[in-house]
Amino acid sequence: MILDAEVFERDNQVFMSKVCPTHGECEELYFGSYEMYKKFSTYWMDGKGAHSPNVMIDKCSCPNNCGLCSNHLSHSGLANMIVTNRCDLTCWYCFFYVKKGLEGAYMYEPDHTQVRGMMKTLRAERPIPGNSMQITGGEPMLREDIADVIKIMKEEGVDHIQMNTNGIRHAMDPEAAREVRLAGCNNLYLSFDGVTARTNPKNHWEIPYALDSCRKTGTTVVFVPTVIKSINDHELGGIIRYAQKNMDVVHAVNFQPVSLTGRMGKTEREKYRITVPDCVQRIEEQTNGEVTVDDWFPVPSCMPLTNVIEAFSSKPKYELSIHFACGAGTYIFEDADTKKFVPLTKFCDIQGMLELFEDKAEEIRSGKNKYFTMLEVVRKLKGFVDTKKQPAGLDLAKMFGNILMKRSFDSVGSWHVKGLFLGMMHFQDKYNEDLERLQRCDIHYVTPDLRIVPFCAFNVIPEWYRDRIQKKYSITVEEWEEREGVKLEDGLYRGLMRRGAGDELAAGCAKSQMFHDASQATM
After folding, report:
1. What are phi and psi of 351, to 5 degrees?
2. Which helix (H) or strand (E) holds 505?
3. DSSP string, 1-30
4. Which parts of the chain register pLDDT below 70?
5. Distance (Å, whole) CA 453 – CA 455
6. Which domains does the chain possess?
7. For the Radical SAM core domain, which residue ranges apply (predicted)?
8. How does pLDDT run across 440-469, given as a tens digit for each residue?
9. Does residue 60 contact residue 66 with C-beta atoms inside 8 Å?
10. Whole-model pTM?
11. What are the residues whose beta carbons fall under 8 Å from the beta carbon of 281, sequence distance 6 or more?
12. Sign of CA dihedral 476, 482, 486, 490
């Protein structure tokens, strides 16, 4: 049921408290730093919302009827399509994959007609047609026709396609990696939970081979660590250092503090619960202060840049208007001489630049000549950059100028070639679900019943969304096995790359090459 909740500060942390008439009070850590919460809250903005909603309602009934509704406040920044709920791994903390023998288990794999219908629904979204798609699962590479699925997305007009994967098939089958790249997959959203075998048993041995396949095919990579307190939160700095070693192909690390699903007592939740500020603090400690707490900004802080581009072009533009507590990010650039990372905030007045963008957007909206105004913006950009502290080989003002004038994917891409994006996205769960956050969500799922559902409704309330919708378009595991002539468990990965590795590599942890590379990287 929907409950009233109080969000309050105690001991410089932010908590949420709610009282269920049946089960009593539940108190949950909401945000690990009140100081960061106050800083981030200054960037609170409402987005454009859904101008062509699939669910028309007169009064908000969130989250009872998502799809998107007329009260949702953000367009689809990134759309997800589940192409299978099969997976070749059985990670203990995963909230979503089919497992034979479980009550209610089903096999969900939309066919090509359903895929095309979902894509048409996304592209029909207004005022911003959906243009960025993540293929997810389960493990998408288990579908033998995955390249055909990608081709359908490209045919329907999507520019950017990334695949959420464990990378095992990319490591084992370079030809399959080549096939999906040629079909139109730009980027791998690659699961990567640590630099040791103990923290990342799922693909520790396979990651280097997957990266090699991406190099050969021209596929960029985002490392995606699921961060769990007491499990791998001591290796966040090591993950960044390993990304630095592979910056020719790895352009971002997007940390995801774990969502706690299932029935868990308060003591167990406290053992595993970690929030955005907690991760940011650990990164400062584990990078020896190279990347500090002050270097991070909430996702909606980039809205002023959207606003000035939108005012200049007189057309609605892509925006990131999510709730300030949902995520954070920063850019770090490698100095060409010292090979050390220098965060953007160390040589750029970010706050001053954002205020310039907002002021000039307002001037254009008020009738001032937009061409002269934009030239003035570009001319003033250099004043916000300390060229003495700017990393060697980088011209930040020129990069910003290109984004403002060209307003294209290619111009934004130059950021990722020169630097490394560090992101943080904390998806909600039943213990900390906040409808103010949900109504601003811009990471959505497209579904075969032609709805667009926010992430933290789709997965947090699977009884209403994920499972209820997908079961309508699924078959039983037994039916699938009979149709395909194989057993579900036959698709499980047996760790082939680990065989014959010898005791030293099998021991993993501090003895592994990955750990050595991370420890040797300069920070």
Report:
1. -60, -45
2. helix 502-507
3. ----EEEEEETTEEEEEEEETTTEEEEEEE
4. 406-418, 499-512, 515-516, 518-523
5. 6
6. 5-293+316-342+418-482 (3.20.20.70)
7. 73-298
8. 999 999 999 999 999 999 999 999 999 999
9. no
10. 0.92
11. 32, 33, 293
12. positive
